[in-house]
Amino acid sequence: MKTILFQGDSITDAGRSTEDDLNMGYGYPTLVSSELGLEYANQYRMLNRGVSGDRIIDLYARIKADIINLKPDIMSILIGVNDIGREIYEHNGTDADKSSRIYSMLIEELKEALPDVKIMILEPFILKGAATEMCWEEFQSGVSERAKIATETAGKYGLPFISLQNKFDEAAELASNDYWLRDGIHPTAAGHEIIKREWIKAFKEL
Q1: Range 175-206 burial, b when 16+ CB lie within 10 A, else e
Q2: Residues with Cβ < 8 Å from 48, sequence gap 6 or more?
Q3: Quick one: DSSP state of residue 72?
Q4: Mean pLDDT, to the nearest integer, of 55-78?
Q5: 3 state SS of 126
Q6: Whole-prediction pTM value?
Q7: Residue 184 confidence class, pLDDT cut points 50, 70, 90
């Protein structure tokens, strides 16, 4: 049985249990698990190790316990919004240059420790909403910069990149922003379905 690992911040965490691996929260990891579990019965073990509030530097700090030791065959990474949000609200974010360096360090160390692991990088995204509209320009420019870092990192190491900002921008033309992202950051059920569909597309092309 192969292991699929979901990594990231609160969008991935989505209320998961830290004691029961079967309880992966209400977000896209559970939706992916439902679809793949039915289509590929008993072929994959799914693990969610997203941690609410994480920046890229926090994810890097967890590389041994929450990635390498789990020996995933396939993993995805969705990170970046907190590097901006925590700077805006706590003055404790991660600047762009450091984010880029740490993202590269993360991938290089993973490829060294787990040479056969397949890694997918997801694009961080944002819409105007309750958590972002007060500092919208800072959020928009900062998340756009982190999305560029994610794209460049994927390209540098030849990894699949999953675009999401354009999907949420398109969805926002069909319904209000908070229909998809309840506060401009955290997805609703419909928002998580968008991520799941793009994740599955990329997975089937690995």
Answers
A1: eebbebbbebbbbbeebbbbbbebbbebbeee
A2: 5, 6, 12, 13, 14, 16, 21, 24, 25, 29, 30
A3: -
A4: 98
A5: coil
A6: 0.97
A7: very high
CA angle 12–14–18, rounded 5-degree value = 95
How far apart, in whole angstroms, are the C-alpha atoms of residue 3 and residue 47?
Answer: 7
Q: In degrees rounded to 5, what are phi and psi of residue 9?
A: -105, -145
Q: 165, 124, 188, 126: which is closest to 180 by C-alpha?
A: 188
- Percentage of the chain exceeding pLDDT 70: 100
Residue carrying the six token digits 């999401």? 164
Question: Quick check: helix, strand or coil at residue 20?
Answer: coil
Pairing of β 44-48 and β 2-8: parallel
DSSP code at position 132: T
